[in-house]
Amino acid sequence: MKTKVVLIGILLFSCLFLYSCSINRMAMNMIADALTGEGSADVFAGDPDPQLIGDALPFAIKMYEALLSQNPTHQGLMLTTGSLFIMYANAFVQGSAEKLAHYEWQQREAALARAKQLYLRGIAILDNALEARHRGFRQAMANEEVRDSFLRRFRREDVGLLYWAVAGGLSAYSIDLLNFELSARIPEWNAMIHRAYELDPNFGGWALNEFFIIFYASLPEVLGGNLELARHHFRLAVEKSGGTSTSAFLSYARNIDIPAQDYDNFRYNLEKALAIDVDVNVSTRLVNIINQRKARWLLDNAWLYFSFLPIPDDF
Q1: Rg (CA), the chain
Q2: Which of these, 100, 107, 90, lies nearest to 50 by C-alpha position?
Q3: pLDDT band for position 161 (50/70/90)?
Q4: 207-218 and 159-175 helices cross at what angle (nearest 10)?
Q5: 300-305: which pairs have CB atoms within 8 A and are 24 or more residues apart?
Q6: Which of 22, 97, 100, 105 is most buried, most CB within 10 Å of its CB?
């Protein structure tokens, strides 16, 4: 009888333990779904205070990482966590570093190195998500002979992962152009972003068009660069956004006008960006505010990029 009582007790405890685990897993899934669901991005993207978001993002990233460690197969958490690393690195680490004065070069180099590491952390999570969705992803992307055929398996729901993985990868490469490990991945990122565009050319409204302005303008022709295609995507971004995309004007000024040393068009595009009402589109309010600050800084420091402009007296 005692043995039976003990066995029954163990069985009941085991059932309760498994039930508790099930409840915990359900709760984790519910939290993860709520934090990564539709509309959650506007809590950040729609905020009018970049400093508030910049201060809040590190905690948010660690919170998502903690949730992901408890629920490592949740696709929404992987996408959100990976993309937050990349957004934070771009907007608040690399972006701030680029505005540092010439005599602050040590702080600049340290900040850029940190931004690169943040990009790489985001890429690792996104690559894991892509591997989980499509087994053999990493191996196929490294093999030019099977890369394109493998990407044919991808569907529209994969576009977000493809976009952010490529955005993070090329951003990391832009910081460290002599990194051969990153440069070796450019062909696969090229294939991935073009597959994303095939699947959903209107992803994020006009996000892919904005991306292609930088992509085609900054890469050499041998790696896929094409100024005409950059201009084509600029026109599409302006058309799709109804002229409310600060990113399109800013990207054109930085990646096309500066290399061409076309100061008049550089100034025109930045003034167009500054004239945009940031409250017209809540989903892009934060990025538009950040971009307008960049545009103002670029105009005030245009002499750094155009050799024929006079150097300020206080330099």
Answers
A1: 23
A2: 90
A3: very high
A4: 30
A5: 302/263, 302/266, 302/267, 305/258, 305/266
A6: 97
What are the structure tokens assigned to 72, written together?
């490592």
H or E stretch including 296? Answer: helix 285-300
pLDDT tens, residue by residue, 278-305: 998 888 899 999 999 999 999 999 999 9
Assessment of whether the complete model's pTM goes beyond 0.90: no
Q: What is the mean pLDDT of residues 26-39?
A: 50
Q: What is the full DSSP assignment across 39-52? A: TTTHHHHT-S-HHH
**CB 233, CB 246: distance < 8 Å:** no
* Residue 134: DSSP 8-state: S
CB 122 within 8 A of CB 164: yes
Please report the pLDDT score of residue 17 as a whole number: 47
* Whether 161 contacts 130, CB under 8 Å: yes
CA 84 to CA 61: how far, in whole Å?
Answer: 7
In the block, tokens 């061409």 appear at 260
Between 103 and 34, where is the model more confident?
103
Round to whole Å and give the CA distance between 267 and 21.
60
- 3-state SS string over 200-267? CCCCCCCHHHHHHHHHHHHCCHHHCCCHHHHHHHHHHHHHHHCCCCHHHHHHHHHHHHHHHCCHHHHH
| Closest-CA residue to 214 (of 201, 203, 227) | 227
Distance CA 261, CA 239 (A): 25
Q: Would you say residue 54 has pLDDT above 60?
A: yes
Amino acid residing at 228: E
